[in-house]
Write a structure and sequence with these properties.
Elements (H helix, E strand, L loop, with lengths): L7 H15 L36 H4 L13 H7 L1 E7 L6 H11 L24 H6 L6 E7 L2 E7 L7 H8 L4 E7 L6 H12 L4 E6 L8 H12 L2 E4 L1 E4 L7 E4 L4 E4 L10 E2 L2 H7 L5 H14 L5 H5 L3 E6 L8 H11 L6 E2 L4 E2 L7 E9 L8 E9 L1 E3 L3 E4 L4 E4 L4 E4 L2 E4 L2 E3 L3 E5 L9 E3 L10 E3 L3 E7 L5 H14 L3 E5 L6 E4 L2 H15 L3 E4 L5 E6 L3 H10 L4 E3 L5 E5 L2 H9 L5 E3 L1 E3 L5
Parallel strand pairs: 1-3, 1-4, 4-5, 5-11, 6-11
Antiparallel strand pairs: 2-3, 7-8, 8-9, 9-10, 12-13, 14-15, 14-23, 15-22, 16-21, 17-18, 17-23, 19-20, 24-33, 25-27, 25-28, 26-27, 26-30, 29-31, 29-32, 30-31
Helix pairs in contact: 1-10, 9-10
The structure holds guanosine-5'-triphosphate and magnesium ion.
Guanosine-5'-triphosphate binds next to helix 4.
Length: 599
């Protein structure tokens, strides 16, 4: 029920319970233990900031373009780096990430009309969900990358899939961003996947901006939602806007810093903020109770935490915006906030040293491969996050894993499936590099230095399946296709050493559906799956490489190699795994492999 429609007495009761959450002594990230060790390979170095750290932030001042007066950088390179904002949108499935992405792009001026994410199954036009299977099922399967300009900034936006079966893709994406937008369905609050993804962000110290979405529908009490964020995530909240009315009576949002309101317009136009005139609002909509709203706003100002720039950047506090992505509401406030106080590119840790984003030499790592984005030209794109320096089209880079040079002749900025040649790109940018299989996930590119960025691991699969081919004449094609799908990270492929047919490993069953559909659509292959005799796969290693080979010889029919040729032991069940491990002293069995540790 909307608080604004309740009696003043109800508001007072609320004030009592709210005081719990707003007092300084309430749950703070600090008390529950701030971030332990950083995500493997991540720097905790704080990037120098441009903003004067407005405290509390005045929304009007939040999005002023860069000017010499408030710029620390002096070189053109540093100025370009400081302009970059690279962020992911994360949440539980269906909270509205893709819808929000569409609307953010609209403000970015990149598309004129956002393709609406309508009812499931009827979404043919969103930019971000471009794959056939995504459009058919109405879910995001892969991360979509979009680069656009807005208000003097260059945004690299990554729309991630919410479903847990695609979590590897999402985790990889989170290695490439400097901040995240956490979308919450106003009727549902913090859901399981949101919580998990938040934990991953916290491991990497990624600052989070919260967008409470679907305010146009019946929603939970905003105070309750803030309280839930604080309690379940141990994250302080600072509302930046506040909803006026809920559900069908959602009238707009109140800007806490300026005291102005932005009203919902029927035609989806952006309405400029205006002074709050409660009697006029209530006259237009009799369901709105002016007195109750006024009391609620007073309570918000009095009891809610104020935005603190440093606490946000350190990951202890999240600014919260309310809105409706579908109605295009509250989205501009969110974008302005990102432009203003989301961090510029952070430093990144490599195996040898920490690389600062302002360093002159270009460095980058590949966090995602996507094949066949353009069905007419079987292309293969490696998505790289630039970590330092400037990438120039045509330049030669060193691929550290192979120590071979690679010419970056056609780097591209992506806009979901659309693209444009990138003549130059800077630290923070995500560029697509077309290649024919040379680049792999985790690869480091430099201008000569022998370093490898550290990062996201590969997880041992939860499900193993043998691939059954309808037409045995197509075995060679299947081998190529599986190699491609494994390089993309759609599935993991394990090739048994004894020559038995390849096995695929996945974290969740939807990945198998995606593999089947994509092999049919993109390669004309009709496949099925069989339950193999094995259910577990573990990477094996030992300081003494000879010992691994001895182990492999002794367990030949249970050993396979993965995409990189690394040895994997497969077991029927946990008992066999434990039994074998006990009898192989010195051999390490792991269920995690760091794909970026090579090179
Ligand atoms: N009423 C209402 N519906 C919304 C809003 N935002 C999104 N939706 C609907 O919610 C459904 C899911 O939206 P998506 O944007 O696909 O959600 P998602 O988070 O990208 O989902 P996954 O990528 O599959 O995790 C769609 O039917 C949208 O039309 C909103 O602000 N109000
Ligand atoms: Mg989506």
């Amino acid at each position: 029920m909307a608080l604004a429609r309740k009696s003043p007495a109800a508001a007072v009761t609320r004030m009592v319970s709210l005081s719990n959450y707003s007092r300084k002594g309430s749950i703070t990230a600090g008390r529950l233990g701030r971030l332990p060790a950083a995500w493997p390979g991540e720097a905790r170095t704080r990037v120098p900031t441009l903003e004067p750290a407005a405290l509390p932030c005045h929304m009007r001042r939040m999005h002023k373009p860069l000017s010499a007066a408030d710029s620390i950088p002096v070189t053109p390179l540093a100025a370009e780096v400081e302009r970059r904002r690279t962020f992911a949108i994360i949440s539980h499935p269906d909270a509205g990430k893709t819808t929000l992405t569409e609307k953010l792009l609209l403000f970015g001026g990149a598309i004129n009309l956002a393709g609406q994410v309508k009812a499931k199954r009827d979404r043919r036009s969103t930019r971000s969900d471009w794959m056939a299977i995504e459009r058919e099922r109405g879910i995001s399967v892969v991360t979509s990358v979009m680069t656009f300009d807005y208000d003097g900034r260059v945004f690299n936006l990554l729309d991630t899939p919410g479903h847990e079966d695609f979590s590897e893709d999402t985790y990889r994406t989170l290695t490439a961003v400097d901040s995240a937008v956490m979308v919450i369905d106003a009727a549902k609050g913090i859901e399981a996947r949101t919580r998990k993804l938040f934990e991953v962000c916290r491991l990497r110290d990624i600052p989070i901006v919260t967008f409470v979405n679907k305010m146009d529908r019946d929603s939970r009490d905003p105070f309750e939602l803030l309280d839930e964020i604080e309690k379940t995530l141990a994250l302080d909240t600072a509302p930046m806007t506040w909803p006026i009315g809920r559900g069908r009576d959602f009238a707009g949002t109140y800007d806490i810093a300026t005291g102005e309101v932005r009203l919902v317009s029927e035609d989806g136009r952006t309405v400029e903020p205006q002074p709050l005139d409660l009697p006029a609002l209530a006259a237009k909509n009799p369901m709105l109770d002016a007195a109750a709203i006024s009391e609620e706003l007073a309570l918000v100002k009095d009891a809610c935490r104020r935005f603190e720039f440093n606490a946000f950047r350190e990951g202890h506090l999240t600014p919260v915006f309310f809105g409706s992505a579908l109605k295009n509401f509250g989205v501009k406030d969110l974008l302005d906030a990102l432009a203003s106080f989301a961090p510029a590119p952070r430093a990144q840790v490599s195996d040898k040293r920490t690389i600062d984003a302002h360093e002159g030499a270009m460095t980058a790592f590949v966090f995602k491969i996507q094949a066949n984005m353009d069905p007419n030209h079987r292309d293969r794109i490696a998505f790289a996050r630039l970590c330092s320096g400037k990438l120039r089209r045509g330049m030669k880079a060193k691929l550290v894993r192979t120590e071979k040079p690679i010419t970056l002749s056609a780097p591209q900025f992506f806009f979901a499936q659309d693209r444009a040649l990138a003549d130059e790109a800077y630290a923070g940018d995500v560029v697509g590099i077309p290649n024919h299989g040379v680049l792999r996930i985790g690869d480091t590119l430099t201008e000569g230095e022998h370093i490898a960025f550290l990062g996201v691991p590969n997880f041992a699969p939860e499900i193993l399946r043998r691939v059954k081919l309808g037409d045995p004449m197509k075995a060679k094609k299947l081998k190529e296709a599986l190699q491609q799908m494994a390089e993309e990270g759609v599935v993991q492929v394990f090739r048994p050493l004894d020559g038995a047919p390849a096995m695929v490993g996945v974290v969740g069953p939807l990945q198998l559906d995606v593999l089947k559909v994509r092999l049919a659509d993109e390669y004309g292959l009709d496949i099925g799956f069989e339950q193999p005799e094995f259910s577990l796969a573990r990477w094996i290693s030992c300081a003494d490489a000879k010992k691994v080979e001895e182990f492999v010889l002794a367990n030949y029919s249970s050993c396979a190699e993965d995409l990189d040729g690394d040895r994997v032991f497969m077991a029927r069940n946990q008992f066999i795994l434990d039994y074998t491990a006990e009898r192989a002293p010195g051999i390490v069995f792991t269920d995690i492999k760091d794909v970026k540790k090579k090179g």
